[in-house]
Design a protein that fits this description.
two-stranded antiparallel ribbon; 5 helices; 8 strands
Length: about 210
């Protein structure tokens, strides 16, 4: 039994144990399960251990999508140089493609940072490249648009909008990925200074 609702939140980390579920994992060679369905809660996901395989976001993201390592999926770096663009191997299936083939609605919003268009998503709205924090440009199903505001808030709104307008009679998968915590680490507004009217005594061990 597959979950009817699957939401994956991803930031600046890689999943050390890869492949979506033991069911989908059978479709992707040279991979290991990184989470499985909880037998007591069939629509819940349980993470026992996570460890990053890569120090960069693009190869980590490609691994999450494919359940494979870089030598299989083809993404080794962030492809930020014009003469060093890497291609996510089109022969390696992604879990959104498998879910869509199984009848799921699939959506992706936020950070992507793989040079090719996302595969397996009915709807996608992503930052081009690294993306910007303020008044960022997005690419929505192939069309470039600009939105006003802060990237984290906009990506959250995109995710909520997707959840509202999807077909509620069908299972779905939503992947939403934030620009934060990627450089240059720009906050939405200047941090407010913290003040405290009282002081605390030093502990006896100091």
């Amino acid at each position: 039994m597959l979950a009817t609702r699957l939401i994956l939140v991803e930031g600046l980390f890689g999943m050390g144990k890869t492949t979506l579920t033991r069911h989908l994992g059978e479709r992707i060679p040279n991979s290991r399960p990184w989470f499985e369905l909880d037998e007591d809660h069939p629509i819940a996901l349980r993470h026992d251990t996570d460890a990053p395989d890569y120090a960069l976001c693009a190869p980590s993201r490609a691994t999450v999508l494919t359940g494979a390592y870089s030598h299989i999926h083809g993404i080794y770096g962030n492809s930020e140089e014009a003469d060093a663009v890497e291609t996510l191997d089109p022969q390696v299936p992604t879990f959104p493609e498998l879910l869509r083939d199984a009848g799921y609605q699939t959506g992706l919003v936020g950070k992507y940072h793989i040079r090719q268009n996302p595969r397996g998503f009915d709807y996608w709205c992503i930052h081009p490249g690294q993306g910007e924090y303020f008044d960022p440009t997005y690419i929505e199903n192939g069309t470039q648009i600009q939105k006003q505001g802060y990237a984290t808030d906009i990506t959250t709104d995109l995710a909520l909008d997707y959840l509202e307008r999807r077909d509620h009679a069908k299972p779905f998968c939503l992947v939403y990925q934030f620009k934060a915590p990627h450089r240059p680490f720009t906050a939405a507004s200047p941090p407010k200074p913290r003040t405290c009217a009282s002081t605390s005594a030093w502990p006896a061990t100091m």
